[in-house]
Amino acid sequence: xxxxxxxxxxxxxxxxxxxxxxxxxxxxxxxxxxxxxxxxxxxxxxxxxxxxxxxxxxxxxxxxxxxxxxxxxxxxxxxxxxxxxxxxxxxxxxxxxxxxxxxxxxxxx
Length: 109
Known about the structure:
The chain is built from 4 helices and 5 strands; from the N terminus they run βαβαβαββα. The protein is of the alpha/beta class. It has a single domain, classed as 3-Layer(aba) Sandwich (Glutaredoxin), CATH 3.40.30. The longest helix has 16 residues, at about 35-50. The relative contact order is 0.24.
C-alpha cells in the first residue's frame, strides 16, 4: 500500500471521511479479493496524482462489517467518492484507471 493511501477503520471513518475538507476516495476491499488486488496499484497511482487535492483511504470489509453494511456494500471492490461528507459517486468492481480519473475529476472541479 502506498504512503498516500491510508488504511482506516470504522472508528476513524467519521473523522477521516465525513469531516474531511477534501474529497475522499474510499476503497472498500478485502485481502482475499482478487479484483481488489487489481485496483490497489491504480489507487496508489491516483493517490499520487491527486496528492493534496483528494484523500484516498482503504477500509477492510472483513474488519469493518458494520460500516460495510451501513453503506450497503454487496460486492468488492466498491469505491465510493465522498465530497462534503456525502457519497457523490460509486464504482463497483475492477475498472480501468481512466474510469476512476473521470469520476475523481468530477469531484475536484
